[in-house]
Amino acid sequence: YPLQSPNPYSANTYDERYYLDLFPGFLHMMHNPDEYFSERVKTILMSQSDFNLDEPYEFGQRHHVNIGSANSDNDNNEIIYDFVYSGGDQDVETDCVGWASYNKNFSFVRQALEIMCSSEFNVTGVLVANKNKANTKACTIPPTCADKIVQTTFLNQQEFFTYISKSRWVFLPQICDASPRVSTQALSMDKPLLMNRNIMGGWKYLVPGVTGEEFHDIHDFKEKLRTILDNTRGGGSVNEEKKKSPYTPLDFVRKNYGNALAGKRLLEFVQTHFGDRVDLPEGTKYLVPTGA
Fold first, then answer.
1. First CA to last CA across the chain, in angstroms?
2. Theoretical Cys-Cys bridge with 37: which of 41, 92, 173, 273, CB 3.0 to 4.6 Å?
3. pLDDT digits (tens, 9 = 90+) for 124-169
4. What is the pLDDT of residues 206-246, one digit of tens each?
């Protein structure tokens, strides 16, 4: 939105220009907004995932051990998995064929797993929401992934954060995704990303070599997988992993996003372009969007 939905399972269609011209301002996640919006429409690159990062940050801090701390051998801080992939709420009954699976690019995940589970890489990981809520059926994955890949039901936030805390990085292979919150949640927990550079929104969070690695398609996936594995595989504990990893995802997200920083940019955007339309309380320092 406001462009046509990429959902191949929906028959809903509408005139894109109607929505593109309907509002005088837009918060967008596009790579090239000038290709779609007219000059009179004021735009800012901003997503819901820019905000509300205190919860994952605080969770990450509780499960993170600073190098040299007395608790560096705490089992609660052990790294168990290479990656976590969040499938949203997968279409398990149709073997992960449907909008949710399309949105999270699960067909690509299956391709990627063939590589990841091979003897060359022996990747371990977690596919979240890859089983039905009754925990009786899972989406099919390559047989070579047996004993390497954990498939879970839909998780609550704390359970999901726990898996992230026990993983080296987060896998974001999707293309048709507006700006998945898991991207900044992972960064706030000091976890780098392996991201599809073609993703519609959230691409701004990926700085190669700083917040993780990006791939274009299956043809360069193996190369980027090797890079992030070599950069993050250490001795097993959080302490040892952080000694090895060159990535600084937490530093990046704390310097660029979160309510205070993103909210200040939103306030300045509103005041600059629509100051005559709003009456904000005196002393307002930032704005935080809610309701999504």
1. 14
2. 41
3. 999 999 999 999 999 999 999 999 999 999 999 999 999 999 999 9
4. 999 999 999 999 999 999 999 999 999 976 556 665 667 89
Q: What is the pLDDT of residue 68?
A: 31
